[in-house]
Write a structure and sequence with these properties.
Order of helices and strands: HHHHHHHHEHEEHE
Distance between the termini: 41 Å
Strand content: 5-15%
Number of domains: 2
Helix content: 55-70%
Shape: elongated
Length: 298
């Protein structure tokens, strides 16, 4: 019993260490992208951080503080809808990004050509976002707002809400600075960001099929349904060597939910055997209908 408790404490400490390093590195990459590439070239990107940069260009207000301030009402609405457990890692990611944006305001401009700034800035943002996603964090912003708006108007998918919100923010930036040509560099940044994010994460919106073999399959099943909101399929198998029968749990989750699932399983049973495979297409309840793409899922 003592060994089990000690092992859980070590795993908790290890997770806390990796989470902290992820927040530090992700926040620094965000700051580097903004202060060394995007802001010197006056490029406005989508999202709340992009809206913060518009106020920076107009009034020279600190980007990080604005990013946090503009996210607060979104967090409040999301907290009322989803609760604190779901929101906690989004808040942590946003705090890290906002803090590092203001702490590293002194980073030097590394390019003067807007196209180079768009490409390198987009790649760094993509890398930072992929890093945060890998540990279950987000940088808040329009993703949460798009989910909330989708629940009010389901005719428009989450991905289209994100696209619409980002387009509005980029348009506001172009009109506020009377720089219509800047839209081109904003689009170049968005393209570099999305391509690198897809490359780094191999599709963060793709689904993952997870097979779990554990002596505590019942406890794991209950917690997955309760805490992640995913269903479980129980398959029956047998160990070849011992001949002992075993329950094999099959659970399909989105890419960004995988970290929470792994964490939950290890919390229940550190000795659980887990197999994670790519699910290129998933149709059915709470995933896709045949007319929708993976990024359209709720």
């Amino acid at each position: 019993m003592k060994k089990e408790i000690s092992g859980k404490r070590r795993n908790h400490s290890k997770r806390l260490l990796f989470d902290s390093l992820t927040l530090v590195l992700g926040g620094f990459l965000f700051a580097l992208a903004f202060h060394s590439f995007l802001l010197p070239c006056e490029i406005v990107i989508g999202g709340i951080s992009g809206l913060s940069s518009v106020f920076y260009f107009l009034f020279r207000l600190p980007v990080g503080a604005l990013n946090l301030l503009l996210n607060l009402p979104i967090f409040f609405l999301a907290f009322r809808r989803y609760g604190g457990r779901v929101l906690s890692r989004s808040v942590a990611g946003t705090l890290s990004v906002s803090l590092f944006l203001d702490l590293f305001y002194f980073l030097p401009a590394l390019v003067a050509e807007p196209l180079l700034g768009a490409v390198f800035g987009g790649v760094l943002l993509g890398g930072a976002t992929a890093l945060l996603f890998e540990r279950g964090f987000t940088s808040g912003g329009t993703d949460l707002l798009a989910m909330l708006l989708h629940e009010k108007l389901r005719a428009i998918s989450v991905s289209r809400w994100i696209l619409l919100l980002d387009a509005v923010i980029i348009g506001i930036g172009a009109l506020a600075r009377m720089n219509i040509s800047g839209i081109f560099y904003s689009l170049a940044t968005a393209l570099a960001f999305s391509l690198f994010l897809d490359y780094a994460q191999r599709g963060v919106n793709s689904a993952k099929a997870v097979y779990i073999i554990s002596e505590r399959s019942g406890e794991i099943s209950v917690r997955i349904c309760r805490e992640i909101g995913r269903g479980i399929t129980v398959l029956y198998g047998r160990f070849w060597f011992s001949g002992k029968e075993a329950e094999i749990l099959l659970c399909t989750v989105r890419r960004r939910e995988l970290y929470r699932l792994r964490d939950l399983i290890c919390d229940c049973d550190e000795k659980a055997f887990i197999i994670v495979t790519d699910a290129t297409e998933v149709y059915g309840t709470r995933f896709l209908t045949k007319s929708r793409s993976l990024i359209d899922i709720e």
